[in-house]
Amino acid sequence: MRISLACALALSPLTVPALALAQTGHAQMDHASHGHAGHDMTGMAQPAPEDDGQSHAGHGSNDATTMPDDHHGHGGRAGHHTMASDTGSDTSAMAMPDSAPVPHAPPPAAAFSGPAHAADQIYSPEAMGEARHMVTHEMGGMRTTFVQLDRLELQPTKGADGLAFEAGIRTGGDIDRIWIKTEGEGEIGSGINEAEVSALWSHAIGAWFDLQGGVRQRLREGPDRTELAVGVQGLAPYMFELDAAAYLSTHGELTAGVSAEVDQRLTQRLILQPRVEVQLSAQDISELEMGSGLTSLEAGLRLRYEFAREFAPYIGVEWQKKFGATARYARAAGEDPDRIVAVLGIRAWF
Amino acid sequence: MISHAMNRRALLGAVASTGSAAAICTLFPDWARAQTMHHHPSGAAPGSAPDTTSALQGEDIKLSIARTPFSLGKRTAMATTVNGSLPGPLIRLREGQDVRLHITNGLDVDTSIHWHGLLLPFEMDGVPGVTFPGIRPGETFTYRFPVRQSGTYWYHSHSGGQEGTGLMGPLVIDPADGERIAADREMVIVLSDWSFTAPMEILRKLKIAPDYYNFRQQTWFEAPSGKPMALPDKLKWGRMRMSPADIADVTGATYSYLVNGHAPEAPWSGLFHPGERVRLRVINASAMTLFNLRIPGLPLTVIAADGSDVKPVETDEVQIGVAETYDFLVTPGDRAYTLVAESIDRSGMACATLAPRPGMRAPLPPLRKPPLLTMKDMGMGDMGSMNGMGAMDGMDHSMHHGAGEAEAKAEAKSMDHAGSMRMRDPDNAPGVTLTPGVDMIAPMPVDRTGDRGLGLDDVDHRVLVYTDLEAPGPRRDMAPPTREIEVHLTGNMERYMWSFDGQRFSEIVEPIRLSHNERVRFKLVNLTMMTHPIHLHGFLFDLVNGKGDRQPRKHTVNVLPGGFVAFDVTADAPGDWAFHCHLLLHMMSGMFNVVTVRPLEDEPGRDNAAGDVA
């Protein structure tokens, strides 16, 4: 049945329109769509304006596809098929028409007709609207929340053992997120003596980086500071995780911090992580015991074992150095501005 | 990370014992029980081989969706099941009949069933928010449609990731006038993946740590692929912020791979009489896993793909994308065989035993080494080997075989410097919105329909490629396509975002608009490093694979990384149709859109079925 129809198509290009319509079993329908489309595209009598594209395709690639120019749309069917029946099942001869270029073109006008949502014609538009809202969200709109404990570590020293932590909560979608970050350090016995909390809005600005902005609150033994924070966080080439931000305090002080870390997989679960963090200040802030320029540097090497991706204890070593005036403040406070400490901690998220 | 070492040992032990685990699991439908003999009712004509003993058939079929405990090994979790089983019951229809499928939702959330690969009125297609409102808790929804085709298909939920928790099952349609190729027996093989972590939680983990499930990475001391990576290569991949070991997002680290609901520890088995012609109806009903399927010692004759007959072609291994189906004819001898379905990253496998007598077992081959991505998978054409990597620099590569056009293009590109070989050059894909969801734009994607699937390049036996598939007769619509629609498959592995043309469906994208009965060519260009099985609902399309009027018909097509695939389709079914990557979490990350066909027919008593002449 199909084959005889196809042969008929091949024999008489003129009968094609009728047969093609018969084939669809929707004569009325198809007339309508022709009417809509206009149309140069499927119009059979008049040569189609995108002739060039089509005949180019044919001529350029294979003699077999060279078909009369008036064979467009349905006419094209006939021409094409003549060739198909000539070559029978010889597929090599058919290879070229397969891959012959097809022009890019906008959809015919008919494609824009009718309702925006077909199912609304059949089901309750309210129910459809609700379901549509859900499916739209479901296909890409997922929000993710997680808590990250990047470092929670003990730094044993001759005096009171040090403590350091760095943690955050992230919530939001793929592009816009809220980050609450906190980090700080202290000593066993005397507790936290320096900490900060940031609340940042984060927006993806490229494949790899997020722009972040918000406020940071410094909480210290000395005077607190509230600061405006602007920075970037993301993955740099060579898989460096980078977090850089500048801060402007309500006192007009400008400071900055940059940290970079990179995971080196020794085995599937044993990971060596070099990490560097530097702090900078544009001015001397005696209240915060901070000199201008490069104030401090921490360079560490941590080796963690991922029992699970979410839970990994680690050991490591870190060089902590303060510079210039900052170092002098530290010395005055009885601290060693240049020391190497062992670290012992856990990294976790959930 | 279970899988590799531990499982192989456990497997071998279990394989030596019998498949008694079936007894503890009440979830298997009759057709999927271990040691099931799928026999003919006596007197049935060879070739029809319907499994009438347990299949649901007739004009009215009742299905109920519920949460049911499902056990694997010692663990039990709640699965989403159809009529209490995982996989769901086999539905057996006959071409030309009408069917009413009554689905009762026993869950406390909405559900749906989509009839994968079926040509039906759009409002019966079962995609909530696109073709119907979904099925509310406690409701019964009746799908009704004429059955207009035959072959091996399947059904699954299109709601809330439920297909990843068990809501799927096989659907077989017998041809109105008998099978073209006779078989003495048939077996339905449903491949799936099961995790004790819910799909949405898996997705959350991937959004936080995209390599969460990948324990087969290239490390300093380990090269699971067997090829230690030289420092320059390591640096080049690092510079791109990508990993050549990024083969599968979700792996054997969490998945158990199942055949008919059975884990390899207690494999499903099918019985045959030696010398019989056995038709295997293989359905990849998994959520996230492409499988490499083979039966060592038994050649596979492919006789149908995605439900449509193809000219028989013999092969030894097939990479089967999620949602694809293949029918194979095999003629086993008087021995046992193991059907092996290895996950594409080879972190685990599903297996089954085919044997002439109960209790027989064949050896289980070990998992092969995981593959690594190459520059070809990065869309650098076929220009450089893994070690070469020089293609990145645009200059110092040597070109191997490749289409003349591609070579010329490559040459042109390397001439005008590294510019156009850059990994994210918008000029290389003008249709793509360069959002944060796009981490690369393959500079020079090539037609990969003739390529073996990822990781099968160097196996020493035959592997099915799409250019092997040929329809037995001329295609239905001889019209050449009048226009081409180029769709780019895009993603960002680091952010775990997936999209078409750089935009997630949640960004309210423009649908792909077709006019009724126009014939269009879709060109799917994969700009990512993963193979995406792309599915168009409501149509069977003609795969452009060089076979001219004998193009095979499919409903789902694997697009290899750095490659493109084209298919032609006649828009003969008005309505709205889902179009998406069938990797569940890619779809749910945004790799989804709607194809609209207009105008709708406005006369009352609209009959879509008439749109397609058989």
TrEMBL record, chain A:
GO terms for cellular component: cell outer membrane. It holds the Pfam family CopB. The keyword Signal applies. Keywords: Signal. The keyword Signal applies. Residues 1-22 form the signal peptide. Residues 30-39 have a biased composition (Basic and acidic residues). GO terms for molecular function: copper ion binding. GO terms for biological process: intracellular copper ion homeostasis. Residues 30-117 are annotated as: Disordered. This is Copper resistance protein B. It comes from Novosphingobium aureum.
UniProtKB/TrEMBL annotation, chain B:
It comes from the Bacteria. Gene3D superfamilies: Cupredoxins - blue copper proteins (2.60.40.420). GO terms for cellular component: periplasmic space. This is Copper resistance system multicopper oxidase. It holds the Pfam family Cu-oxidase_3. The keyword Glycoprotein does not apply. It comes from Novosphingobium aureum. CDD domains: CuRO_1_CopA (cd13848), CuRO_2_CopA (cd13874), CuRO_3_CopA (cd13896). The keyword Oxidoreductase applies. Coiled coil: none annotated. Residues 1-22 form the signal peptide. NCBIfam families: copper_res_A. GO terms for molecular function: copper ion binding; oxidoreductase activity. Keywords: Copper, Metal-binding, Oxidoreductase, Signal. InterPro entries: Cu-oxidase-like_N, Cu-oxidase_2nd, Cu-oxidase_C, Cu-oxidase_fam, Cu-R_CopA, Cu_oxidase_CS, Cu_oxidase_Cu_BS, Cupredoxin. Residues 73-176, 248-342, 480-599 form the Plastocyanin-like domain.
